[in-house]
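pinging the channel bc i need a second pair of eyes. not urgent but kinda urgent?? the chain im working w is below, pasted from the shared doc
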Amino acid sequence: MTQTSTLVYNAICSLSKQPASEHAQIRQELYNTLQLSNTKQFALYSYVLGPASAGKIFDVQSAVNSALDIIEPTH
């Protein structure tokens, strides 16, 4: 795993385990660490982090791959 994929994986796992009151902080830390544009933040939230917060991610590796497609389109 690359550093980016590890960060995303950890964020997804944290979102599934931590109370909802901590989700915004988890997401913001990821956005800040990766220095994502607002457009990428929105896409990442819409397609990966939002569903993770809602408990709708059943295949974490697939979610990480989807996130990497957003963050690093040519990974």
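so The CA atoms of residues 27 and 74 lie 23 Å apart. and The mean pLDDT is 95. — does that match what u expected or am i reading it wrong
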